[in-house]
Amino acid sequence: MVEPSKTRPEKIRKIIFHSNKDDFAIDIDLLKEYSKKIKQLEADGKVPKMLDFSNYDVIAVSTLIDYMATGGRTKARITNSILGDMTEIARLLEMESLLTKINEFILISVTQNEQFLVHTLTMISMQILLDTSMGKKVFDIAVNKFPIIRKMASFNEVPLDAILRILDRCDLNISSEYDVVETAISWLAAKPERIHFSYLVLRCIRIANLAPDQRTDLFALTSSMSNYAQIMSAFAHYTFNNTNAHRVCVLAEHNSYKRCGNRSGHTQFVINVPSRKIVYRRKAPPIKASYVTAKPKTSPSQALNEIKNIRMHEGKDLKRSVFGISQKPRTTRMERMERYLEEYKRMLNL
Which is a Pfam family this sequence falls into (predicted)? Predict the structure, then answer.
């Protein structure tokens, strides 16, 4: 009797990219050329039938598909509105070639356009790209162009993480420390809820680099904030009336930076950080047998004599006393010695 042939499930050859408007069917063989993630899923036999990209911009999804269909040459131009979504999708699918093109596009654009630089600072903070190599390069450019971007209205929309990384840099391009004061107060005053981050932002100001009149102006700025002047002034007094507020950077390699060193006093840099060489200790050599001396054997007669001596010197068995903890008045040392002596005599009589 011939058994009916079991129908095997057909191997998925296309994946549906679902967006909030259209669905796009992508061939797996084409997708594997650009996506390491899909290639791994296909090898494991776990390729899904559909990927849901409904939370992303439709133009970003279509631009991504055009990039693969045209062999890496996109038809649509990458714009600010789709840049963040394209970057996140490319990271999810592990599309290294597309990420490389996006990084090149970002680095060229932030160098040429300050408005795009501020937009990129917001994007990399939201996409958790702060500690990537591309993110570090963007921050280096932002630190260099700080005199320009800090005066832009859109700079107040940069998230907290990016602001702290910029204002705390030793190599920040400033004319004086008061530039940091104005930028910090302006960013805090832009939104009422930022009052909770006052300490984190104000501690980026290096109070030791401010002249006496600039310190007075600093507290005047905090007092001028509408609705939150009292709270802001309290945060400022707490931040700057602290020993940590007077810390200075004295690294020798930072001698050329305006923010480093004690500019109000001596400018000598006293700390050099040498490169340390790690030295590993050698393991101790194994102990040779010749180094170990064995205990000489004793004769039976000597052993018997030792046992007799032990028995002769054995003391009298004493009864163990049970001690309890009780609240007793404190006594002097003389009184305690007399009591111990009486207890000892009583024990001997027993």
Answer: BACK
Alpha helices in the chain (DSSP H): 28-32, 36-44, 58-69, 80-92, 96-112, 114-126, 133-144, 146-149, 160-167, 178-190, 198-202, 212-223, 229-240, 300-312, 333-349
Q: Give CA–CA dist 107/122, Å, rounded.
A: 15
Q: How many Å from the N-terminal Cα to the C-terminal Cα in the chain? A: 104
Q: Pairing state of beta strands 23-27 and 50-52?
A: unpaired
Q: How far apart are CA 188 and CA 239, in angstroms?
A: 15
* pLDDT per residue rounded down to tens, the chain (350 residues): 444 444 544 555 888 888 888 888 888 888 888 889 988 888 888 888 888 888 888 888 888 888 888 876 655 466 667 888 888 888 888 888 888 888 888 899 899 999 999 988 988 877 667 788 888 999 999 999 999 999 999 999 999 999 999 999 999 999 999 999 999 999 998 888 888 888 899 989 988 888 888 888 888 888 777 667 777 777 788 788 777 777 788 888 888 888 887 665 533 333 344 444 444 444 555 544 444 444 445 555 565 565 555 454 444 444 444 434 344 555 666 676 777 777 777 777 75
Would you call 251 helix, strand, or coil by DSSP? strand
Number of Cβ within a 10 Å radius of residue 95: 24
CATH code matching the domain that covers 153-264, chosen among 3.40.1350, 1.25.40, 2.20.25, 3.30.420: 1.25.40
Q: CA angle, 213 as apex, 209 and 217 as ends, to 5°? A: 95
Angle between helices 160-167 and 178-190 (to 10 degrees): 170
CA separation for the pair 3, 75 (Å, rounded): 54
DSSP secondary structure of 95-148:
-HHHHHHHHHHHHHHHHH-HHHHHHHHHHHHHTT-TTSHHHHHHHHHHHHTHHH
pTM beyond 0.70: the answer is no
- Residue 267: helix, strand or coil by DSSP? coil
Q: What single letter denotes the amino acid at residue 206?
A: R
